[in-house]
Records
---
Amino acid sequence: MADDEMNVGLSMFIAYRSMEQRTFAALAEAGYGDITVAQGRVAARIGPEGTRLTELAEQAQITKQTAGFLVDQLERANYVERVPDPADARARLVRLTERGLAMATFANNASTAVEQEWAAHLGRPRMRQLHDIMARLREITDPYR
């Protein structure tokens, strides 16, 4: 590899951060400006039926205390709610509220718009190839897939 060639991980991170920044800018413009990047990263890990706080912390690679703090903020802003876990009466799940689902849908649509711009720049075949490559890498990099 040439000395001036960027590490592939850094290249992926730069693209990810660009999408993230554009998505959060769109969220703010649409009236969701009260959600922070840290809160969004935790909210993005909430499953359709809800997720336990400990799982959110593990997946976000943050402490349980930090996850609890972020979930408290999301709950105050009415993006999430805590509900009993049907599998364990002692446990609670964090679940998106209607407002949280609307925000998540909007964020997903904003990210899709960025992807479409990338596809226009790269061409559809290369974008499909990129998706395929990333799916293959996920097999060995994502313990939560």
---
Amino acid sequence: MINLIFIIKAILIGIVEGITEFIPVSSTGHMIIIGNLIGFKDGVIPSYLYTKEYIDTFEVVIQLGAILAIVVLYWDKIKNSLKNFSPKKPKSGFRFWFNIFIGSIPAGVLGILFHDKIKEKLFNPITVTAALLVGAFWMLYAEKKYRKKYKTRYIEDVNLKQAFLIGCFQCLALWPGMSRSASTIIGAWICGLSTVAAAEFSFFLALPAMVGASGISLLKADIINFNLIQVIALTIGFIVSFVVALIVVDGFISFLKKKPMRIFAMYRILIGIILSILIITKII
């Protein structure tokens, strides 16, 4: 029974990751909150299952599942960019991936420098709730002011300056609950990208950041010492996150072509209010 409950919790966290990783509501924030609510965190009994190292590794592995969904959905674009990689060609793959590289630098540098301090100070329900609310109101303001003023319709037309500035906005996502997707999409609006281009650039900008962070975490993890039920839960969580992210990302892009993003801001405000009540009443 204990093992079954453990796997069910892993499935729930995988679903949460798949749904929230690429939409502007903060996957890290949701995993912290849901993990607290269902008891999927280190220190929970039985301790041989809920070790800190395992929980950290689990979160990394399911993020890789979400990343794989982006690779699958955008495989044709990735393949064509590699075929057309010459710097001399217009809208070349080299230019595209160099923009992604430049956009990844700011958050990469700050993440390396302050990773431990961020984990220590910001990974808790109070800071996540604050970030959800701050991000929500900023999203409402930015959408009203910038969304319809775009000059760059497609991600292939993003220039170096835009890429770097969007990367600077991505740094805000180091505050759990702010949302990497929300931060980069808002930054892209301000830099003159259309909403679909902003979302797609956000997806690709996530690849090096998440693969890099995941790679470092996996190198530090001692997976060989995980027990069988932990490995099973890890595998199921990865698959669930991948499948759910496939569905959600495709639907998210279709949604953005027709609808405003304020629905996500309103959701963040609602969740922020509920979490504030739960924190005040010491439920979490």
---
Amino acid sequence: MRLWSLDPSLLDRQGLTAAWREALLAQKVLAGGTRGYVHHPQLVRFRATAAPLSSMAVFLDGIADAAAARGYAFDRSRILDVPRTAELIDVSEGQVAFEWAHLMAKLAVRSPELRVRLTGAQPTVHRLFRVVRGGVAGWERAAGSPTAR
């Protein structure tokens, strides 16, 4: 599961659809609807908010907005009916840099033309996040682990 801090507009088609699917799974986990993935480290920052399901709804809305901008129709009815307001979640500069490098490596294989367009660009983050100083998040797993996929 990869819940990108990066703005979903930076993702390629495969990344955007995977982000939607994985965020829906995360929503299900946070709602107590599955036994799997309950200890997944990517969920730490959502659980740390006052309203984890509202935070996930905002996260999913951001992905759906990026999809709509490309002409895709993600089914927003799958987002739980919770308030769509949430506190900003801090994401460190180091985490953003880690995710940016991870995304660029994926794009080099999957979508080289997009990688070329993004080369030299500054990464932006999903509207749910606020960039703060710091290194890679403690919940992030090292490259090559199942979470880093």
